[in-house]
Sequence to fold (158 residues):
Amino acid sequence: MNCPECGKTVGKFSKFCKYCGVNLDDVRSMSYKDKLWKGRIDRKNYFAATLLVILALIVIDVTIIIVARSLKISENNLVLFAVNTVVNYVITFYYTISLDIRRAHDLGHSWKYVLLGFIPIYGIYINLRFLFDVGQDSPNKYGPKPSGKWMVRRSLGF
Fold:
């Protein structure tokens, strides 16, 4: 088993990671929802996970367009593809907001800070902070400092 915080190999039944000290029992008992919405994410993993979500959306949209054209789907049946696209955007929005919230946690802010990103012009500033600001060096009320290793899989809640 690998430690979800530092990525190093630990014993399958270990209670704590011997490298970073994270409580592995707490991590094992976390639900998928907790992994997605709680904790912190550093800027490197935030950028990589956001890019991965956007690329997945593009691939799905391009695939839908190719299938629609190759099957010569009429305009009436195109509604199914439009619904599929809307569903894809909702899923992308869900993951992106979860990444934004954990990035705000890394900067020491609550989830409400993400709402400022919806204000025109000011949202650009918020997103630039998420991309370029260094998170807090010490543990804060949202969790320990992220390890800094590439943990994109964990960033997406898996």
